[in-house]
């Protein structure tokens, strides 16, 4: 049996990966269910939020949000899900913005991270 938080997280994840407009609502709903001390799932959900911003062409906001998560001193560190979402974010950046400073930094920080 799955907990409600796990189902909500999965809904946000799937909607984010397929680029569905329902992702933002699903991510917000999942964040509302998780306690503040559930660091790893909350970080992944925040990365999903960053992905939805980039997918909506709010590239600066999305990249800076993602960069803030991976550079946060309180981050629990990389996970397989976070790596997948980070790659999704970077692939969603339009070609004319691939050299955005936050995109370069995000690529550099996450390059070679193996889980």
UniProtKB/TrEMBL annotation:
It comes from the Bacteria. This is Uncharacterized protein. It comes from Actinomadura rubrisoli.
